[in-house]
């Protein structure tokens, strides 16, 4: 059970949200120029850490807006909530810089 | 089974039998031998299996019994069978759509059929039949197609009408006016259940008999590689252990191990929940699954109704899920089986499953020479335990996949040859 603080609607039960998995993935700029391995990586391979994870959520039964959450996948603690277009605090991600 | 009867190994434990039971009863059951040893890890092994669940222990057992290896270690970070092996709903079936899946799951089912005798351990394997329900016209049509595909692979299965289902499962609500009406289904009569803990214990005891070191409370914290990048051992919480042949069978934690080894897997760790009711008199003597409502039910020998739920949508390693999943599952249970509405829930639990994009497993070599992974079984690994172990042992022994394992390599994600079993997986990924 997660209590997710939607940046617009406040804390709500996770049953109200849709999950978008790993955040900050960029679609290859020129898909036809990628190798099979690069395209497979983009389609199927996601980070799957035990610990802090920057992920996307959408408040499906509320404002229906997408936003980002850094959540610890082991303790379920929500470490940071931030809007689309913003970046997570590297300290929260254990020193990992996303870009 | 070709291997039956060739199990008495170096430790030479006495066989379990009715006579052993009687003999030990006379001494107040105080003289039973330990079922397996608790050895200290040796500095090196011929092969190491990381993960002491059913699949890992089966792998070690077949490495010893089929491939004649003797210096094998199973490294388990907790206790054997304490992960998904002890958390599943114990359902066994092989009614999958594609030929590749049929081959591996039917291989497993055929091994199950002789496994209690082979391991000399009562796995309480019960071929009570597995029924899958259809709740819409479309689902029924799709089901007929799947039944024909399954039969073409030589696997027993048949379509059931609503009244056939009612005859087999008298407690089911076949009122056409309910939210998810029962419009028919199909059954695999050779499917059923087995005692999940016994599977881990039976394989552990049989593997130990053949000299396999089962090392518990031993978590792998890193992989050692030589100058060429090939694996040459593991760092663990109980010291360095060397081997040039390592198989990882860690279910939900496969991604963590892959990260330690320096590569990524197309796998996401998700919670999958189940629960049991308080024990009641026998009311259902088969297994009933429903893909549409994500609910499956059977009754344990103790009388508890064993109810499986769906997965949570989010990644987790916490071995627990959200309450709304349980709520959905119980709503479906109460509608389909009205007599359960006043039963109390005895306990609920969660396990971390390794879901794969095509709902099929990965049995594969990896970018690291000498390191192999058996993972991605997701929500349905228990049924495959013997087949998975048998085929993975072959991969570890020969360094290349056999005909059954070959389609399940990691290369399939680049080649586009996915084995999409979302329809047969039972639980949505």
Description:
The complex is a heterodimer of chains A (99) and B (429). Chain A has 99 residues and is mainly β. Chain A has one helix at 36-44, and strands spanning 3-6, 10-13, 18-22, 52-58, 66-72, 78-83. In chain A, the strands form 2 sheets. Chain A has a 4-stranded antiparallel beta sheet with strand order 3-4-5-6, with no helix packed on it. In chain A, strands 1-2 form a two-stranded antiparallel ribbon. Chain A is globular, with a radius of gyration of 15 Å. The N and C termini of chain A lie far apart (30 Å). With 429 residues, chain B is an alpha/beta fold. In chain B, 28% of the residues lie in helices and 22% in strands. Chain B contains 10 helices and 19 strands. In chain B, the strands form 4 sheets. In chain B, strands 5-6-4-14-15-16-13-17 form an 8-stranded mixed beta sheet. In chain B, strands 8-2-1-12-19-18 form a 6-stranded mixed beta sheet. The two termini of chain B are 35 Å apart. The model of chain B is unreliable at 1-7 (pLDDT under 50). The interface between A and B is medium-sized, with 28 and 23 residues.
SSE blueprint:
The complex is a heterodimer of chains A (99) and B (429).
Chain A: E1 3-6, E2 10-13, E3 18-22, H1 36-44, E4 52-58, E5 66-72, E6 78-83
Antiparallel strand pairs in A: 1-2, 3-4, 4-5, 5-6
Chain B: H1 18-26, E1 47-50, H2 54-65, E2 72-75, E3 91-92, H3 99-119, E4 130-134, H4 137-152, E5 158-160, H5 162-168, E6 184-188, E7 192-193, H6 196-209, E8 213-215, E9 220-225, E10 231-236, E11 239-242, E12 246-248, H7 254-261, E13 268-277, E14 287-290, E15 295-299, E16 305-311, H8 323-336, E17 345-355, E18 362-365, E19 371-375, H9 385-398, H10 412-415
Parallel strand pairs in B: 1-2, 1-12, 2-8, 4-14, 12-19
Antiparallel strand pairs in B: 3-7, 4-6, 5-6, 9-10, 10-11, 13-16, 13-17, 14-15, 15-16, 18-19
């Amino acid at each position: 059970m997660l209590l997710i603080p939607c940046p617009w609607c406040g804390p709500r039960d996770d049953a109200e949200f849709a999950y978008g998995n790993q955040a900050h993935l960029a679609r290859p700029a020129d898909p036809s120029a990628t190798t099979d391995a690069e395209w497979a990586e983009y389609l199927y391979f996601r980070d799957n850490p035990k610990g802090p994870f920057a992920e996307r959520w959408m408040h499906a039964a509320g404002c229906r807006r997408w936003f980002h959450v850094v959540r610890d996948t082991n303790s379920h603690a929500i470490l940071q909530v931030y809007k689309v277009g913003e970046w997570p605090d590297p300290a929260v991600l254990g020193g990992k810089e996303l870009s | 089974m070709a291997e039956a009867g060739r199990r008495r190994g170096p430790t030479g434990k006495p066989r379990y039998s009715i006579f052993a039971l009687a003999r030990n009863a006379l001494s107040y059951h105080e003289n039973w031998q330990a079922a397996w040893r608790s050895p200290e890890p040796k500095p090196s092994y011929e092969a190491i299996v990381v993960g002491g669940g059913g699949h890992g222990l089966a792998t070690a057992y077949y490495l010893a019994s089929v491939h004649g290896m003797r210096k094998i270690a199973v490294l388990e970070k907790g206790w054997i069978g304490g992960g998904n092996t002890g958390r599943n709903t114990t359902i066994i079936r092989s009614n999958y759509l594609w030929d590749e899946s049929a081959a591996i799951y039917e291989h497993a089912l055929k091994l199950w059929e002789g496994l209690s005798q082979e391991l000399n351990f009562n796995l309480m394997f019960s071929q009570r039949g597995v029924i899958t329900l259809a709740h819409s016209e479309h689902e029924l049509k799709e089901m007929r197609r799947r039944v024909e595909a399954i039969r073409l692979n030589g696997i027993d299965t048949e379509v059931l009408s609503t009244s056939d289902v009612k005859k087999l499962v008298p407690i089911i609500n076949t009122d056409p006016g309910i939210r998810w009406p029962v419009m028919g289904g199909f059954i695999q009569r050779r499917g059923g259940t087995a005692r999940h803990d016994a599977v881990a214990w039976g394989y552990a005891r049989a593997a130990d008999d053949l000299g396999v070191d089962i090392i518990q409370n031993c978590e792998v914290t890193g992989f050692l590689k030589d100058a060429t990048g090939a694996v040459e051992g593991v760092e663990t919480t109980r010291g360095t252990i060397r081997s040039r042949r390592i198989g990882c069978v860690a279910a939900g934690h496969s991604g963590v191990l892959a990260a330690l080894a320096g590569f990524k897997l197309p796998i996401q760790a998700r919670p999958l929940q189940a629960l049991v009711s308080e024990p009641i008199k026998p009311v259902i003597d088969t297994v009933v699954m429903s893909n549409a409502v994500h609910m499956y039910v059977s009754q344990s020998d103790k009388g508890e109704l064993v109810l499986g739920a769906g997965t949570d949508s989010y990644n987790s390693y916490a071995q627990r899920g959200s309450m709304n999943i349980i709520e959905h599952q119980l709503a479906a249970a109460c509608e389909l089986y009205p007599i359960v509405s006043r039963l109390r829930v005895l306990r609920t639990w969660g396990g971390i499953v390794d879901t794969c994009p095509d709902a099929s497993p990965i049995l594969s070599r990896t970018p690291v020479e000498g390191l192999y992974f058996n993972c991605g079984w997701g929500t349905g690994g228990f049924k495959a335990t013997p087949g998975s172990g048998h085929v993975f042992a072959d991969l570890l022994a020969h360094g290349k996949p056999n005909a059954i394992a070959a389609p399940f390599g990691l290369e399939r994600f680049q080649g586009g040859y996915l084995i999409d079993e979302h329809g047969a997986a039972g639980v949505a990924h």
